[in-house]
Each structure stands twice: as structure tokens, then as C-alpha cells.
Design a protein that fits this description.
The complex is a heterodimer of chains A (124) and B (363). Chain A has 124 residues and is α+β, with helices and mostly antiparallel strands. Chain A has one domain: OB fold (Dihydrolipoamide Acetyltransferase, E2P) (Beta Barrel), CATH 2.40.50.100. Chain A is 19% helix and 40% strand. Chain A is built from 4 helices and 9 strands, in the order E-E-E-H-E-E-E-E-E-H-H-E-H. Chain A has a 6-stranded antiparallel β-sheet. In chain A, strands 4-6-7 form a 3-stranded antiparallel β-sheet. In chain A, strand 2 and strand 3 form a beta hairpin. The model of chain A has no long low-confidence stretch (mean pLDDT 97). In chain B, the strands form 4 sheets. Chain B has a 6-stranded mixed β-sheet with strand order 10-11-12-9-3-13. A 6-stranded antiparallel beta barrel of chain B has the order 14-17-16-15-18-19. In chain B, a hairpin with a 2-residue loop joins strand 18 and strand 19. The longest helix of chain B is centred in the middle third of the chain and has 12 residues. Chain B is globular, with a radius of gyration of 20 Å. The model of chain B has no long low-confidence stretch (mean pLDDT 97). Classes of the chains: A alpha+beta (124), B alpha+beta (363). Chains A and B meet through strand 4 of A and helix 2 and helix 7 of B.
Amino acid sequence: MTIPADLKYTKEHEWVRIEGDTATFGISDHAQEALGDIVFVELPEVGRNIYAGEAYAVVESVKAVSDVYAPVAGKIIEVNESLEGAPEHVNTDPYGSGWIAKISIGDGQVELLTDDEYTTFLEE
Amino acid sequence: MSELQKTPLFDAHVALGGKMVPFAGFEMPVQYKIGALKEYTFVRKGGAGLFDITHMGQVRVSGADALAFLQYMTTNDVSKLAVGQVHYSALLDDAGTFIDDITTYKISDDEYYLCINAANRHKDMAHLLQQAASFDVSVADESDDTTLLALQGAAAQAVLQPLVNNDLNEIGYYKFAQVNVNNTPAIVSRTGYTGEDGFEIYIPHAIAVEVWQQLLANDAEPIGLAARDMLRTEMGYALYGHEISDTVTPVEAKLMWITKLNKGNFIGKTAVETRKNQGPEKRLIALKLTARGIPREHYAVFVDGEKSGEVTSGMHSPMAGGVALAYVKPEHAEASDLSVEIRGKLVAAERTSLPFVRSNVKR
């Protein structure tokens, strides 16, 4: 299981990479492992404003439908359209080509965990 | 909540990285290490997939009245079965609705073998035993003594043959033989739930692990419940609790082909005839999304802006896209412009024929 040190995590198993006033979202290695083979990703519309903790995307595995929650509030500025044709990137490269959306950061965030805190959280 | 049962292969599943989940009162593998999609592909693309389906029940019916009893208890025409032949059938209640769907094996003129759904085992047995009193017949539940494996896919025969004394070429589609597997009496039928050529193998628990390991050593790949459900849904095969249940009759479920109204009396016959004459309350259809999305069980199906019914089984088919079986109002059974409500949005769909992907069974 990979938990990169340069990201922050949520208790809902999303990750966020904050760079200046933008943030990139995805789901953690643990999340993709638990879901199994991802066969569909429903992406949000660019320009949509989302609040922290809002279900902004949906990932569907063979058996399950799961909401994906925003770690940080803001406006969607880009979505990973390649996931429409290749949703398996969420499984094979959850922190890289499996990213889901980028936002310009607004006000508010859910509780964010460091890599160490997330590791501890997973062990509990 | 009673404790979950384990099949004799539980430890083998765990050793193979099987993700164990509760299913019909058993702990069963939903997938193994390679994941459901690769397991599915292995079965569809020429491999031999190995499934532990020991959760399913087996009932032996024997005695002078075995034929008369099963003619009365089941929907299909048992008098048409030859020794060594299997057919798909059902147990109905007086209302004509499903107690279970089953397969019936004719072992001899006075002995038959039924394969039943795990979740329905106890109500099936209660129903059979209640009626058996009026017949010269004995009904024995052998579920606890029998391991049932399915070996499915184009390579199945080559993988199984080394373990069996008989030539498997002699077992045709929906036929079976009483053979020796590893020198132990067993039943092998050319049947399955995947749309691929393959076998179902009934063996005593004592040889379950060794047979499982030998089949894996012969290049079979273990396949979990998730891939099994994908494979059966692509064929449009009914699953109890989804397409069929104690609220629908064979008229709604498109299963009149296993319901022989001209064979004499059977339980549920009058109700089915009435339903057939009056017309069904709903009809089972097959649909395919024409836009992106996955139709899932219980999602609403719309026709002409009106809610018409709901999905009973749906999936993302790697070959056919978003596909589903659904019940709709009878007047919509031939409609071509359909939609499925997915998270509040209507996604366009069209009616299609079954199976959703090509069947490779050897008829």
C-alpha cells in the first residue's frame, strides 16, 4: 500500500495535493484496493462550485457505487477526462494518472491527515 | 443471525487471496487476487475458470413415484428427460410464483437429483417433504455432503479430463454422467451459468481440496462471485431474488419455456394459466444504455417520460457496455426508447435481445 508523503488525506480515503491556490483530488491506494476493479467514473462539470465534504464524483467498481467527497472547497477547474475511457487508472495509478479533479481553492476543508496520520488511521 | 457456513475449500480460497464475503449463509470468495475483471476475461477468452459453488443445495428424490412426484412438484416435463439428461425447471407455489428455480437430473426411472439455490434450501425441502407424504417417494437433502465445483470456459474439458475415467466427449450439453473423479464416484454434467462450455462437478467433501488443487495445477484459474454474476448477467440468465422471486410467475419472467402447461397437473399450474390468460402484470426485458453509465439493480426504468419499472440485474459489460434486465409494464415490453434513472438523471437506453454477448455453450 502506497501513501505518498507529499499529499494530505481524508478519513473518507481521498487524497489532495495542494499547490498554491489549486488542489488536485483523487482516491487513496487503500480506497481503490477496497473497491476493486473500477469500471466507471462520473466526473463533475468544470466550473461547478463544491463545498468541503461534498460528493463531487462517483466511482463504480464491478459490484459497488461509491461517492467521492471533496477534501477542500472550491471551484472545479479541470477534470481527468481520460478516466472516461480508462477508469482502471484509478486502480493502477491512484496518485498519478488516476487523479479525478482539480479545483481553485475556496473556503473550507474537511479534517486533513498527514501521511503518518493517515497510516495510523488505517491501522486503527 | 446464525453463523456463516464454510465450504471445505474455505482455507484454499483464503490462501489464494480470496476476499471472503457472506453469501446465502456461507462465507464465499467474491474475487481473488487478480480481481473480478481479469477473472471474467479469463473465462470469456479461452481459459478454464474454477468456481466453488458448494453453497448450492442437492436433493435426491427416489422411489416408485419419483416421476409422478416431480411432475407434480416442478414446472418442466420430467417425462421427457432421458437417463443422463438434465433440464432447467422451477418449483412454484399455489399462486404460481417461484419458490425456487432448479435443475433436475434423471439418474434412473425411479431416481432423480435436484440442484437448488442455497438461500432457498430449507423452504424447498419443507415444500418437497410436505407433498412427498402423498407419494411413494423419499426426498433426501444431500447438500451438507456434497461439494459442487463449476469449471467453465473453452479450456474446461481439457483441464478436467485427466481427473475423470470417462471420455468427456460423451457428455453433451445438459447431459451428465456418473463417473469417477480421482477414483471416487461423482456426477459430472455439461452445464453452467456462464454461457461458456464447461462442467458442474458434484463430489464428496473428502476429495474437494485435492480436486480443486489438481484443477488449478492443470491451469484453471479460481473465479469469485463477482465475475460469476457478470458472466451470468451477460447471458441474461435469471437469478433468484432478482429476476424471479415469490412475487412473479413464469409468465412475467419469460420462463414459460420451462413451464409445460400440457403435461398434466402441477403445483401452480392453474394460477399460471390464469395469469397467462389475463396477461402479466409486468414483463422482463433486456436493455442496453446508449449513453455512458451503469444500470444497477432497483434503478427506475422510464418509457415516454413515465416510470415503467425497474432494473433487476445490471452491470458494465466489458464487451456490451451498460446492460440490464428489467421489469416494465406489459404495454412497454416492445418499446424501443427507454431510459434508466441514474443518480437523478435519465440515461438513454434501447431494448435489446439476449444474450447480451455471444454464448459459446456447446449445444
